[in-house]
Structures are given as C-alpha cells and as structure tokens.
C-alpha cells in the first residue's frame, strides 16, 4: 500500500482501537490524528459523513466505519486476518458482531442510572461472556494459533474490564477459564497493548467518573458490586 495512511481517532473509542490493531498487525505505517468529538473541527465534518471515528484517510480518500476499514485493510494487505474458508469467515464475522453488541452492553452498564439497572446490565454482560466461553477452542486466540479479525475486535472489549475490575469483584470472570486466558493473551499482544494512548486508563476513569451513573458512584467509593 503506497498511499499515506492517517487514522482519525478519538482517545477512548474502542472502534478506533480495532482499526489500529489491524493496521499494526499488517505492519503498516500510519499517522494517528485525534479529534475532540465534543468540538468537531470543520475539516473532520467535511470528510466524515457520520461525524464519528474512526476514519481512515488513504491518500485523498476517506473510509469510515471500523468494520469497513478493517475489511479494506484485510483485502489489500497481507497477512490475511480472515480465514480463507467462506463458512469459517462467516462464523468469524458473526462473532465480530457479537463483540460489537457486547460493547453496547458495556456502554449500558457504565451508564446505568441506579443500582438495580447496574446489576441487571452486569448480569447481561456475564451471560454474553458465558456464551463466548462456549465458542472458544484451546487458544491462545479465538480460532487457535492464528491471530484473526475476531481477536482485533475483542482486544478493545476486554480493555474496559481493566478499569471495571479495579473497582472490585464484579463476578464477570468466574468459571470462564478460556475467556480469561484469551483476555490475558490479548492484553500482552503488542498490537493490542499499543492501540491506545499511554494515559488511556486515566482517561477512561475520568470519563466514567463524569457520567453521573451508579458505576461512577461505585468508582468514587471503590466499592465492589456483589
């Protein structure tokens, strides 16, 4: 790929991380350009039809939406992160959607207004993680020895729990050995580790504390969810 690559990003966006992981796994050099989504610059609004990140600038062409960006990168640059087999590739894409739906549950969890809603969303997340446990093989990655696009999706998902777990015992990981080991493998992967700003943890904690939610109260007290 000869055209210069610019990843337009936001420091806390998990979908940006997804694109950054794929770029790194492909060994592609790229510039990262952060934008403040609360005060979107005119140049960003001109090239981002949906007004959100990530956005990949390939020369003069702007590609938006993380799934499209990742598919483009996989179609144009080796190594391939999708399986060659069409049915297996469809399975991977299904679990990628599962990962996106889990991100939506995580947002509902950290936005829950009261303890009842917080507990309900925590239970929903636990249910999804249990389903994921049943889909995993022997590891270390989603489909065994090869890092795939599914792994790129779940690296940013699991990163949220580094902060959630610091609040106290949330009960998400009990009796989920495969998911727990997968999470550990992903956190140690250089492409996953380096996909965020060095101050990501502090930025995320500040964001959560500003939500005025039940989790923000828990974070302030450092009290566990029972």
Give a structural overview:
The protein is 57% helix and 8% strand. By secondary structure, it is α+β, with helices and mostly antiparallel strands. It has two domains: 72 residues, Glutaredoxin (3-Layer(aba) Sandwich); 136 residues, Glutathione S-transferase Yfyf (Class Pi), Chain A, domain 2. It has a four-stranded mixed sheet with strand order 2-1-3-4, covered by helices on one side. Strand 3 and strand 4 form a beta hairpin. The longest helix is centred in the middle third of the chain and has 26 residues. It is globular. The termini are far apart.
How is the secondary structure organized here?
Elements (H helix, E strand, L loop, with lengths): L4 E5 L4 H12 L5 E4 L7 H6 L7 E4 L2 E4 L1 H11 L9 H26 L3 H21 L13 H19 L9 H12 L1 H4 L6 H10 L4 H8 L5
Helix pairs in contact: 1-3, 1-6, 4-5, 4-6
**Strand line-up in the sheet with most strands:** 2-1-3-4
**Sheet having the most strands:** 4 strands, mixed
Q: How many discrete structural domains?
A: 2
> How large is the share of residues in beta strands?
5-15%
The end-to-end span amounts to: 51 Å
**Tally of helical runs:** 10
Named at the architecture level, the CATH assignment of the largest domain is Up-down Bundle
Principal-axis shape equals globular
SSE pattern, N- to C-terminal: EHEHEEHHHHHHHH
Q: Helix amount, in percent?
A: 55-70%
Please report the first level of CATH classification, the CATH class of the largest domain. Mainly Alpha
Q: Count the strands?
A: 4
User: Radius of gyration, Cα only, in angstroms?
Assistant: 18 Å
């Amino acid at each position: 790929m000869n055209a210069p690559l610019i990843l337009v990003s936001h420091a806390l966006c998990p979908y940006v991380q997804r694109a950054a992981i794929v770029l790194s796994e492909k060994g592609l050099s790229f510039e990262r350009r952060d934008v403040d989504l609360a005060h979107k610059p005119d140049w960003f609004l001109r090239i981002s039809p949906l007004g959100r990140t990530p956005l990949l600038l390939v020369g003069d062409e702007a590609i938006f939406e993380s799934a499209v960006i990742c598919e483009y990168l996989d179609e144009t640059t080796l190594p391939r992160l999708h399986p060659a087999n069409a049915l297996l590739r469809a399975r991977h894409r299904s679990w990628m959607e599962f990962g996106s739906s889990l991100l939506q549950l995580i947002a509902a969890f950290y936005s829950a207004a009261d303890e009842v809603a917080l507990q309900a969303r925590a239970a929903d997340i636990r249910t999804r993680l249990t389903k994921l446990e049943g889909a995993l093989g022997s590891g270390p990655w989603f489909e065994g020895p090869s890092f795939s696009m599914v792994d790129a999706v779940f690296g940013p998902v699991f990163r949220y729990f580094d902060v959630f777990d610091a609040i106290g015992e949330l009960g998400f990981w009990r009796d989920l050995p495969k998911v727990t080991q997968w999470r550990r493998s992903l956190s140690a992967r250089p492409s996953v580790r380096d996909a965020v700003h060095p101050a990501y943890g502090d930025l995320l904690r500040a964001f959560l504390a500003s939500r005025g939610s039940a989790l923000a109260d828990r974070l302030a007290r450092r009290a566990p969810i029972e």
